[in-house]
Specification:
It comes from Paraburkholderia phymatum. This is 3-keto-5-aminohexanoate cleavage protein. By secondary structure, the chain is of the alpha/beta class. The protein has one domain (6-301): Alpha-Beta Barrel (TIM Barrel), CATH 3.20.20. It has helices spanning 30-43, 64-77, 94-104, 134-141, 152-162, 176-187, 211-225, 240-250, 273-286, 294-301; strands spanning 6-7, 9-12, 47-50, 52-53, 60-61, 81-84, 108-112, 168-173, 195-200, 229-234, 253-256, 263-265, 268-269, 290-291. It has an 8-stranded parallel β-barrel with strand order 2-3-6-7-8-9-10-11, surrounded by 8 helices. The protein has a two-stranded parallel ribbon with strand order 1-14. Helix 8 (240-250) links the parallel strand 10 (229-234) and strand 11 (253-256). Helix 1 (30-43) runs parallel beside helix 2 (64-77), helix 1 (30-43) runs parallel beside helix 9 and helix 6 (176-187) runs parallel beside helix 7. The radius of gyration is 18 Å and the shape is globular. It starts with 5 loop residues before the first strand and ends in a 10-residue tail after the last helix. The relative contact order is 0.18.
Length: 311
């Protein structure tokens, strides 16, 4: 790509891994999530990636009614591209995982391209003496025996049912084999180009944070999909801005947000998702890279028009 290309900033506003005890700035209620999404869009994010939470205790929820409260407000107040997760906990059924995306028919839905088993998350128990809710502690206590399944059958059903309304998929690849899974679904005709590839570095159970790994993932994706793919980089915690900057310099789009990283600087919590988007935008500006608007992101990713979505 030339230096005149537009970089798409995605903001993942809340996620499912971070818990309320970790940061008072983590949005929990539908109103908080929607407002942080709107503010992040105003700061420069073209895409917002959504998870929902139980507004009472902050635990992740697949409830489409909660998602609808969030998405309806965002659609009223912003033209940002909507991206709804189709992931879920180890015991979450496919029906529950896809319910919100099927109902709300967004332009994008994320799709985890392989199963994962996280390592080392139990260490979080030693970092906090007090937890606001019992479920938070239990989430980390059971992490060492947990698998997040994304089988061929599960992915096939997700692609068929969520994609029926014209929603396209952001393929989340946590390791090299996941890129080949994208190629498999392309070969059998379920995924169509351009393929939206999000390479994820540094999450437990997936590929590590080395610069060589980024080059390797990029090279494999380029070999498999050539010009028929759009690339985004995601990295957790303190590695977020460093890896995203490296990726942007190599031609990628970028993702930031409190789902992946609770901090703005070492020891300083981000007070909002908009703060992280602003920081990423400033870095991209220093690299002389232009930022894509939501409508430009729709064109780059070949998404359906904003008006062609469910209300």
């Amino acid at each position: 790509m030339s230096d005149s290309r537009k970089v798409i900033i995605t903001c993942a506003v809340t996620g499912a891994a971070h818990t309320p005890s970790m940061s008072l700035y983590l949005p929990i209620t539908p109103e908080q999530i929607a407002q942080q999404a709107i503010d992040a869009a105003a700061a420069g994010a073209a895409i917002i990636h959504f998870h929902a939470r139980n507004p009472i205790d902050g635990r992740p929820t697949p409830d489409p009614e909660v998602y609808a409260q969030i998405i309806d407000q965002v659609r009223r107040e912003s033209d940002v591209v909507i991206n709804i997760t189709t992931s879920g906990g180890p015991n979450t059924s496919v029906e529950d995982r896809i319910a919100a995306a099927v109902r709300l028919n967004p332009e994008l839905a994320s799709l985890n391209m392989g199963s994962l088993s996280p390592y080392g998350r139990g260490k979080m128990l030693a970092k906090f003496e007090r937890w606001q809710h019992q479920w938070e502690k239990e989430q980390f206590m059971g992490a060492s025996n947990r698998v997040y399944p994304n089988t061929e059958e599960m992915l096939t059903r997700t692609i068929q049912e969520v994609g029926a309304g014209g929603t396209r998929f952001e393929c989340e690849c946590y390791d090299v084999g996941h890129l080949y899974n994208v190629a498999y679904f392309a070969d059998i005709g379920l995924l169509k180009p351009p393929f939206i590839i999000q390479t994820v570095f540094g999450f437990s159970g997936g590929i590590g944070l080395d610069a060589d790994n980024m080059t390797h993932m990029h090279n494999v994706a380029s070999r498999l999909f050539g010009p028929d793919h759009r690339w985004t980089v995601l990295a957790p915690g303190k590695h977020q801005f460093r890896l995203c900057t490296m990726g942007a310099a190599m031609g990628s789009n970028v993702r930031v947000g409190l789902e992946d990283n609770l901090y703005l600087d070492k020891g300083r919590l981000a007070r909002s998702n908009a703060e992280q988007v602003t920081r990423m935008r400033e870095i991209l500006n220093l690299l002389s890279l232009e930022i894509a608007t939501p409508d430009e992101a729709r064109e780059i990713l070949c998404l359906k028009a904003r008006g062609n979505v469910s209300e």
